[in-house]
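Reviewer 2 asked us to include a model.

Predict the structure of this chain.
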Amino acid sequence: MTVEHSHHLENPNATTPPPKIDLISSVPAPPIPDNADAMTILVTLPPGSEGAPPHRHTGPAFGYVLKGEIIFELEGEPQRVIKAGESFWEPGGDVIHYQDGNNLADAESAFVATMFGVAGQPMLIPVSAEELEERRDRRAPRPL
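Predicted model (structure tokens):
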């Protein structure tokens, strides 16, 4: 952790131990829209849930898996499994978010996400089947 990410402040009057703060992830200069709206959501996925259909966001999203495992896939990147205690981010804008489903068939998974989007526009914009077909060459190869 670099100095600019240090979050410990000395408190000489404290009578209890200081909080423990761990850096989980950091993204340099994310593309946050001007006059962005910000929202933090909690998503709970039932066992085996496919999650949201392919979509995009008008700005970046930052997330942290609280429990379970999610399958995460962005346009141009291979799908990956993100487990409890791990984080993710996506740039938003024109990038399609293909998957955010539960990787577990027998347990709930949950994540919290903070999204920064264009004011007055929905935070999640579904992608049509036609557009998915037009951009098929931009999707990373799928596991067999």
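Strands lie at 37-45, 55-56, 61-67, 69-74, 80-83, 87-90, 97-102, 109-117, 125-126. The mean pLDDT is 92. We have added this to the supplementary material.
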